[in-house]
Design goal:
By secondary structure, the chain is an alpha/beta fold. It is globular, with a radius of gyration of 30 Å. It is built from 34 helices and 13 strands. The chain is 54% helix and 9% strand. The strands form two sheets. A seven-stranded parallel beta sheet has the order 3-4-2-5-6-1-7, sandwiched between helices. A six-stranded parallel beta sheet has the order 8-13-12-9-11-10, with helices on both faces. Helix 18 links the parallel strand 3 and strand 4. It folds into four domains: 87 residues, DNA polymerase, domain 1, CATH 1.10.150; 105 residues, no CATH class; 228 residues, 3-Layer(aba) Sandwich (Rossmann fold), CATH 3.40.50.10810; 219 residues, P-loop containing nucleotide triphosphate hydrolases (Rossmann fold, 3-Layer(aba) Sandwich).
Length: 686
């Protein structure tokens, strides 16, 4: 932590110097309430506070009309401004501007990030162990001398014997603690990595770096708290958050959101999409598990069930049981017996008997805004019998008071009865104040001070029955390209297409522009049809450069939400698409460089929002096989080719060949599915 703080101080000082170079010298007069006259400074060529700081008080007093006392006061006022700027300046690690100080900070952060989520627990264990050992060793010290023990009073002698016994028990039971501390210490003592390796890792895991940086630097405590009244803020601040069963560090606003849910028990977390609502929910689950709760239930759309299972498994120690598919009955019995988190769908919740759970989480809660639907009635029934309930929705509610009142009625009926349309007419601030006991929403620009950044989400979906049939046929034929787009073969039941439409709907609700990339023109045609033609493009290889730019310009000029369709190989080169902040990849690409270049069209200088990259991936099929094989190659590309001026010409040096990848995946899938056939060579064009 010390190295990070020192490097951070250097970065802040550098950023502050740049800021001070633009602050007019007249601000010195403001700081001193007009007591200092700065006319002489301005006439002598001192235009900014930075120039005053670069001069010494002695040089200032050489100016006509400025004595030693005034010079000292002027310089002190400039230092006061500099201190305020250093404390307020936002730190954003820019991979395109890797100066010495920012590189030192990234290297220092890399050491801690590389240790992983066990570091906070190791630090807490070490502190607790150290405190306990100090006390026991102090109490056991007399036992080192038999003579001293002989002349000691009975009570003190008994205390020393008890301390010895406690020490022996502590050492006997400390095997896991020793392993944790030994591994953490070994990780921390590893030599620092070169700057290029640290930057490469930062690019892959920037969220973890910024999370740790926020923990060290501290984050704003106003914008991340919504419009909560002071008494409620105090209640949330006093709420503890146990991280024993959590495997992920939280940003300040995420910790606040989790503690808000715990303090208020039955709430809606309405953070803007991309801020990590699922992580906040998992933090609540982990806390309640540490405090003795055993059974939990997550209810979500079918399209994100796999995501929830993976998130819970990777970000906590809780057992997770998907109550979906052929094994749902066995999974339900296992959940009832062992406890943990059951994950089921909104449409199948009505088949699950209501039981006692420590927390009910309902994701995409706006799907139950109509109380007459079967799914809404099932959710309402569970809410009536559950003490703690957490609704998650990224859809803003300020202008949908009737829908919002319905959701609140499931959680806090008395509050719902008090809500009136006038709260909305009075403005968003008044509305949020009225619903503060049950609703917390933060926006990206309020809490992610390092904007623009990039949030990458792997959207894992399971094949529908028709998807699987098309996939098995493609595998039997050895048709690699057909395998890659089998998830879109049955338009009406496509699981990937359903999730894509949900993501577009979320973006529309938040006024965000979307780019949909696919390697295949026919997949884009399917998406366009599903969107009822409400999309720009598609940009494809058949369009001239001028026509492509016209499509991009029309997309950019569109007010608010819009969707642009593009083949990844056509939209990935030569176009600036920073009007978009949501990127959807319909399938993984054979060449990681192709996807990276496509995403870079939106995630580039001029982007004012965090770019959300959603990759639609099929579970236990061609997509998963591709990622497994390409993982190492993608890391090589990230480390070297992306930051090379020759990236486009050298990308093939680190990308695996399409032919070998296709052959390997087809053969593996044929063996797994017990199908036979001859692998076809991939088509040069889709």
């Amino acid at each position: 932590m010390g190295a990070v703080r020192r490097a951070l101080a250097d970065v802040r000082a550098e950023l502050a110097r740049a800021e001070l170079a633009s602050i007019p010298v007249s601000r010195i007069k403001d700081v001193t309430d007009g007591r200092l006259r700065i006319g002489t400074l301005e006439r002598s060529g001192y235009a900014t506070v930075g120039q005053v700081l670069d001069a010494t008080p002695y040089r200032l007093q050489l100016l006509p009309g400025i004595g030693a006392q005034t010079a000292g006061q002027v310089h002190a006022a400039a230092r006061q401004i500099a201190t305020a700027v250093e404390q307020a300046v936002g730190v954003r690690l820019d991979i395109e501007h890797q100066d010495r100080h920012s590189t030192e900070l990234v290297i220092a952060l890399h050491r801690l990030v590389d240790v992983g989520p066990e570091l906070p627990r190791a630090l807490e264990v070490a502190r607790t162990l150290g405190t306990r050992l100090d006390r026991l060793l102090r109490e056991a010290r007399p036992a080192r001398s038999r003579l001293r023990m002989l002349f000691m009073g009975g009570e003190r002698r008994g205390q020393a014997h008890a301390a010895l016994a406690s020490l022996a028990e502590l050492l006997e039971d400390a095997r896991e603690t020793r392993l944790l501390l030994a591994q953490t210490t070994a990780d921390l003592l590893r030599p620092a990595v070169p700057g290029i390796e640290a930057w490469s890792d930062f690019e892959l895991r920037s969220a973890e770096y910024y999370g740790l940086l926020a923990e060290v630097a501290g984050e704003p405590v106003v914008a991340d708290r919504g419009a909560l009244p002071d008494d409620l803020l105090a209640k949330v601040d006093a709420q503890e958050l146990d991280d024993t069963h959590r495997r992920v560090s939280l940003r300040g606003y995420q910790s606040f959101g989790a503690r808000f849910a715990l303090a208020q028990r039955r709430v809606i977390l309405g953070d803007e999409m991309g801020l990590g609502k699922s992580v906040e929910a998992i933090a609540v689950l982990a806390h309640l598990k540490a405090r003795g709760a055993t059974h939990f239930l997550v209810v979500c759309p079918t399209s994100v069930l796999v995501n929830w299972v993976r998130e819970i498994e990777s970000r906590s120690t809780l057992a997770v049981h998907p109550l979906h598919g052929a094994g749902r009955d066995a999974a339900r019995q296992e959940w009832a017996r062992r406890g943990g988190v059951a994950v089921t769908t909104l449409d199948s919740l009505h088949r699950l008997p209501v039981t006692e759970v420590g927390l009910l989480v309902v994701d995409e809660a706006h799907y139950v805004k109509n109380p007459q639907t079967k799914r809404a009635k099932a959710v309402a029934g569970w809410c009536r019998h559950t003490e703690r309930v957490l609704f998650l929705t990224g859809t803003p509610m300020e202008n949908r008071v009737e829908e919002f009142r319905t959701l609140v009625s499931y959680l806090q009926p008395d509050l719902a009865a008090r809500l009136r349309g006038g709260d909305v007419v009075a403005g968003a601030h008044a509305f949020r104040k009225a619903v503060a006991p049950a609703y917390l929403r933060r926006n990206q620009q309020d809490v992610l001070t390092e904007l623009p950044g990039r949030v990458e989400v792997d959207e894992w979906v399971e094949f529908s029955g028709d998807d699987l049939a098309a996939y098995r046929q493609a595998v039997a034929e050895g048709n690699f390209m057909a395998m890659r787009r089998a998830a879109y073969a049955a338009h009406d039941t496509s699981a990937k297409l359903k999730r894509l439409l949900e993501l577009v709907a979320d973006a529309r609700a938040n006024g965000l522009k979307v780019i949909v990339f696919s390697y295949f023109r026919d997949v884009l045609d399917v998406v366009r049809t599903a969107l009822n033609g409400r999309a720009h493009g598609p940009i494809s290889g058949s369009l001239t450069a001028a026509r492509r730019q016209e499509e991009v310009d029309a997309f950019t000029r569109a007010k608010g939400h819009a969707v642009l369709l593009s083949q990844v190989q056509a939209g990935g080169v030569g176009l600036n698409l920073q009007a978009a902040s949501v990127v959807i990849m319909c399938e993984p690409q054979v060449k990681p460089s192709m996807e990276a270049q496509a995403v870079a069209r939106a995630h580039r200088m001029g982007q004012v929002r965090t770019v959300q990259v959603h990759r639609l991936l099929s579970v236990d099929a061609v997509d998963q096989r591709m990622l497994d094989i390409l993982g190492t190659k993608a890391e090589l590309f990230d480390a070297y080719a992306r930051r090379s001026d020759l990236a486009e010409s050298t990308a093939d040096a680190v990308d695996i060949s399409e032919q070998s990848l296709a052959r390997q995946i087809v053969e593996e899938e044929q063996r797994r599915l017990a199908l036979t056939g001859r692998p076809e060579q991939p088509d040069p064009q889709p």
